Fold this protein.
Amino acid sequence: MENRIKPLEGVKNFRDFGGYETSCGRRIKTGKLFRTASMQNAKEADLDYLNKLDIDFQVDLRRQSERMDDPNLWGPHEVHTFNDLYHYKASHLEFAEKGNLTGEDAHNFILEYYRVAPWVEAHVSLYTRWFQRLAQTSGGGLINCAAGKDRTGIGCALTLSLLGVPEETIFDDYILTNETIDIEKRLPVVRAKWEKRLGLKIDDDEALFPFLGVRPEYLRGALDEISSKHGSIDQYSKEILNVSDDMVAQLKSKLLE
């Protein structure tokens, strides 16, 4: 599928993650599955483009504090969120506040994050609603978080897997995040923001990369942990997300051609 990455002006990492071929030789329809980072900087041209898409609902995986600090400038009539303002503190901020950040520390932090993320209450609630509404609605769905790569990346990987997309293709889609972000350009911006917010100095670029880009081993950690605890993504989806066999059949009927 050409033009999978949509070059919006003020919205990062906006992509159509349909169009992939499944193991049985069918193909996911385009224009039904969208993923993105947050949209607090959407420009007028971006809004015009988004308004033309057939998106029935959105699942915003961000914490309530994130949504309050950076409210989306666009959304469909139906937006699903999780209200947790005083529920828990952002784990990446707790990590950063320790200071003396190194690339190895950040890498290990993200690895551990992915190992527990599929069972975080907010994620489970919103992944569940994502699949429910995807099966029930006729139009497309949009899933997002702050950068559109970690929480969103796991949700998209689950979606593609349930639709029968080979694992190699799932990882290819996941890694596309690195093509959407000019990491060298973003590094000084993110460093300045973190240093101001946390009151500390960050000297190691590798300490910031895991919060900007992705590596295959991150998603691998989540999928391996799912397999270890539940045997497969299908079984995890049944036991944790209430995605029944009938719902999977509905999803395939709607989304495959």
About this structure: The radius of gyration is 18 Å. The domain at 15-255 is CATH 3.90.190.10 (Protein-Tyrosine Phosphatase; Chain A).
